[in-house]
Structure formats: C-alpha cells, structure tokens
Amino acid sequence: MKAATLFRATFGVAPRAAASAPGRVNLIGEHTDYNGGPVLPVALGVRTTVVAGPADAGVLELVSTLDGRLTRLDPRDHRAAGWAAYVAGVWHEVAAAGARRGSLTGARVAVAGDVPVGAGLASSAALTVATAKALALLARTPLTPRQLAGIAFRAEHDHVGVRCGIMDQTIAALAQPSHALLIECASAEARQIPFRGRLLLVDTGGRHELAAGALNRRRGECEAAVARLQLELPELTWLAAWPAAWLARLKRALPEPLRARAVHVVGETARTRFGAQLLARGRLKQFGRLLYESHESCRRLYECSAPELDLVVAAAKRAGALGARLTGAGWGGAVLVLVERKREARITALIRGAFARAYGREPPITVVRAAGGVRRESAR
Questions:
Q1: 77 is catalytic
Q2: I need a labelling partner for 297 at 20 to 30 A (CA). Which of 12, 180, 271, 334 fits?
Q3: Which helix (H) or strand (E) is 52 found in, with range?
Q4: What is the pLDDT of residue 102?
Q5: Ranges of the chain whose pLDDT falls below 70
C-alpha cells in the first residue's frame, strides 16, 4: 500500500489505522445538492487511502504522495492551506466526536490515491471521508457511515470554506456496488437504485478550484433567488422546492441571471427524480435523453460548462451515445457518457478523434463501474 509505505518512510514507524474512500460521478442532479434537491451519484473504483498513527498532543503531521513534503502544524491555529486544510478540518470534527474519550490529541497522516484532483470526481470528499474513518479508528471512536459523511461535510464546508452540499461525502460513505444512490439533500434521505448501464468517463484535463471560485458565486445567486421568491412563497426554504408547475411565476419574479439559475435547479430536480425511476425500471435510453437535457441546462442556464466539455458531449451525441453530460460541478473536469456495449469502441474512437483535432491530444477515457463506499484497510 502506497500510503503505508510513505508513512513508514516519513515517520520511521508503521501506521496504526488505515481506510479508503472512493471518488464519484454524479449521473444527474447538477447543482441541486446545496439547493435542497435530489442527486444520483455512483462511486468510482478509484480510491484515496489514508493511514494514521499517533503524534504529540496538538501536533498534526501530514504527508501525501502528491508532493511528498512533510507538513507539521497545530490544527487549532486554523492556518492550514491546500489539502492539509481538509485533513485539519476532519481532525477537529473527529476530536469533537470523541471528546469524552479525549483520545485524539495529535496524529500523523499519510495520503495516497488514484482519484484525480480537480477533475470533478470528488477527490476532496474521498480524502475527508477516508481521513475521518482512519482517525476514528486511531482514536477508537466508533462512527457510522452517516456520521463519517457528516464529519467530512463539516470539514469541507465549515473549516475549508467550500460551500458544497452533502452529495460527495454521502456517496463516499454509503455507496454500494452496482448501485446509484438517490440522495434527497434537504432531508438526507438516501435510497439505493440498481444501476446496469455502461458508462465512459472522459477526462478533458480541465481543472477547477472550487473554494474561492464559481461554485460559491453560483450558490450566492441561488440564495438571492430564494430570498426574492419568498415574497411569492414565504414558506420556501430551498430553491429546489419551488413547484415545477409554477415556472412562469418564477420567471416573472426573478431578474437575470437569477432567473436562469433557478430554472436550471427546478428543472434538474424534476429530471433527477424521474431519472431514478427510469433506472429502477432499466429504461436506459430514456435516461440517456435526460443526460443530454441536463448538460444543455448546465451549459445554457447555469453557465457551468466549458468548451472542452461541450465538445465531448456533442461528439458523443453524433457517435450515437445514449446520453452524455458534464459531471462534477463543471467549469472543467469530466464528461459522463452512457453507451451500449456494442457501440462503445466506435463512440470512444470518435470522441478521441474529435478532441484530438480540437486540442491536439486524446483525452483519457475509462469505464465506470459502480463501486462501494468507505472501508477499513490493512495498515501494513
């Protein structure tokens, strides 16, 4: 295990606890999570592994295969940056969860993984959920998958400042093989949905930084839309709760760009719930059409796409894919393509060719298989 090897090389001792958590792709339900709507993610086979051991009280020592540098900090001073800030946030939350025991006073942590950073595959959630599990094991603090997801969410949202929803952490903690997970983000209700589709993941190579960027701006726009719509519907709490039948009323009440953002969220909410029904019935062709609709809404109304993403979706459609859409917030990252096995090779070749003509390189394309969530690993 790379993380354990790095730990021993850095600290001269073996780790005492280890855990891993997966990345994810969201089949449909883009930017609905922090608006109180549904999402439908699946976990990926790629994972982030975190190993941990004890350290002096008030000391957090961190190392990752990303850069190999040792970072030593006092997590209580709130000055951690980069990926270390995510680990420090988890440390705070796990320490609070086990406060009665007082058993997590300091820690050494090593991280290794295969989830690409900044590609829209929830690398931060894989890191925080795996860290939460590893530190909980180290502290001998028993935590359920739901609790691990909550700790990981608070670490990213409260400590790092990414105004995310609960989707990424929930799927990383609760995923089951061969299933998607329908998550109603307002209530945190989750339901396993059998998934039998064939998916390709096209990594365009575009990367994004969410904490201080467009995601926070879009969330602010959605909150502004809710504030205005409460004049029409005072009991409205979440933008996704606006009735789809009242779209004309919504459009009259909101100026641009708030109108476009809200129309996307309300439409995407309906598409996601209908999509879960279609998957449960095995109706992949109809589900694929929803993916194309979702991407167009993201591109035109939410303005979270990018030229590379649009090119891949258009190429997939010309090649006969059942559906395609950006996944992972947008502004770069990856495209999810739903295919029939008999057409997979042709679609793959045509996407690669179109991308190479436009950008001078072929994008990595991998097959997605719905995997399981967080798990304990051997610390050896």
A1: no
A2: 180
A3: strand 41-54
A4: 52
A5: 78-79, 99-103, 207-212
